[in-house]
Design a protein that fits this description.
The chain is of the alpha+beta class. Among the domains are: about 150 residues, no CATH class; about 120 residues, Alpha Horseshoe (Leucine-rich Repeat Variant). About 45% of the residues lie in helices and about 10% in strands. The protein is built from 17 helices and ten strands. The strands form four sheets. A four-stranded antiparallel β-sheet has the order 1-2-7-4, sandwiched between helices. Strands 3-10 form a two-stranded parallel sheet. The chain has a two-stranded antiparallel sheet with strand order 5-6. It is elongated, with a radius of gyration of 23 Å. About 40% of the residues are buried. Bound molecules: iron/sulfur cluster (2 copies). One iron/sulfur cluster (SF4) binds next to helix 7 and helix 10.
Length: about 400
């Protein structure tokens, strides 16, 4: 099969399996991307994601040829998902609701993406010539945005995600590494220009320089990957984002063209990634009262299972504390006896935020009452700081 026919057949198959974009590159990562990764890790910006800093995995990211013996080409594909169905202003303004990142409104994309990539790879197996291949979906040590850029699929924006001129950035990436020799596509050119909208809007200023996101500050990392007590100074900046954050994508001018297109191209009825209505600005109080079984049931097949109940409820407590809605005080009091220190500690912080002149006596008395029975040092610290803050704001009772 000649090169053009081979590529046309790969494109046709990719499109059949729901990949809107499909491009090919050589198994190489440019030195700029390699150095940027090294600097990022050396600066500790990967936070607690220690697997990002492991030497073997770091080297693999920089040397895609190490991921498959004899690899000649990398096919990169993009699978769109539906953009948030609300504006950023609306998402932040709905009192009592939390915001979930758009890709997590439906089923977990990893399973679907893997299934589709496997089907695509199986169809490539039937192409002429002996060849070997491996598929990857975001959990492997693969620098997927750099590869997508060199394959011409899209450029890496200043927020570090890949942008395509027509689809914007509302898509997920996957790769097939193959020993087939396929003519590579031309690399993408960058079209961010002088724009800095993503850097300006970022609530925690996590985009510390163009193309550099400090994960330790990024709400996506804090709410999903990080499983500890969130630094207190960052909590007020998180607003009502309870699982991930789309702010930098929502303000990107390239997505203002893409939003409608993504909605029309999705076959929403058949697509497992279709948004579940219940994940569209969900009610915080109903999430806070989920027990383990209810959590598992509510988030069956959802990527949100990743945070476990304790991580999600921690985030919900922060969103409640940031809401300014005093009606949540009663809800928060009900989880002060939760088995998870993470939930108790963040509920205490939230109570400290929602205390006012009317309820402060009750809040302080309740927090003082916890001191005797609490044995977790982080939670004890939250109690002392919350009481101190309330007294600092409203005086001693
Ligand atoms: S996801 Fe949110 S917190 Fe992270 S860089 Fe983008 S705007 Fe900032
Ligand atoms: S918001 Fe502007 S700077 Fe950021 S990724 Fe989009 S185009 Fe680039």
């Amino acid at each position: 099969m000649d090169s053009d026919k081979l590529k046309a057949s790969i494109h046709a198959k990719a499109s059949e399996y729901g990949f809107r974009l499909c491009r090919v590159t050589r198994p190489e990562v440019g030195s700029l991307h390699g150095e940027a990764l090294q600097n990022w890790v050396e600066s500790g910006m990967h936070g607690d994601m220690i697997w990002m800093a492991e030497d073997v995995r770091l080297q693999r990211r920089k040397s895609p040829e190490s991921m498959l013996e004899g690899v000649q080409s990398i096919i990169t594909v993009a699978m769109p998902y539906t953009a948030p169905p609300y504006s950023l202003e609306k998402a932040c303004a709905v009192t009592g609701s939390g915001v979930i990142t758009a890709y997590a409104h439906g089923d977990d994309y990893h399973d679907l993406m893997k299934k589709r990539l496997k089907a695509l790879a199986a169809s490539l197996d039937r192409l002429p010539g002996n060849h070997d291949q491996r598929i990857f979906v975001d959990t492997a040590p693969v620098l997927e945005h750099a590869l997508a850029e060199s394959a011409g699929l899209g450029w890496q924006g200043k927020h570090s995600l890949t942008i395509h001129r027509d689809l914007g950035s509302w898509f997920l990436l996957g790769e097939i590494f193959t020993t087939l020799e396929i003519e590579p596509d031309k690399p993408a050119t960058n079209h961010c220009g002088t724009c800095s909208a993503c850097m300006d809007i970022c609530p925690t200023k996590a985009i510390v320089a163009p193309y550099v996101v400090d994960a330790r500050l990024c709400i996506s990392y804090l709410t999903i990957e990080f499983d500890g007590f969130i630094p207190r100074y960052l909590r007020p900046l998180m607003g009502n984002r309870i699982y991930g954050c789309d702010d930098c994508q929502m303000v990107c001018p390239w997505n203002s063209y893409a939003t409608n297109q993504a909605a029309t191209i999705d076959d929403l009825k058949a697509d497992p990634l279709r948004p579940r209505g219940e994940n569209n600005l969900p009610d915080l109080a109903s999430l806070l009262h989920l027990d383990e079984d209810q959590f598992r049931q509510r988030f069956r097949k959802s990527p949100i299972r990743r945070t476990k109940r304790r991580g999600l409820l921690r985030n919900v407590c922060i969103a409640m504390g940031n809401s300014g809605y005093v009606g949540f005080v009663g809800d928060l009091m009900q989880v002060l006896g939760d088995n998870e220190a993470l939930i108790r500690g963040h509920a205490i912080w939230a109570l400290g935020c929602l205390a006012n002149e009317q309820n402060m006596d009750v809040v302080i008395e309740t927090l003082n009452g916890l001191l005797d029975r609490e044995d977790n040092c982080n939670v004890l610290e939250e109690i002392s700081i919350s009481i101190e803050n309330i007294r600092g704001k409203y005086g001693n009772t």
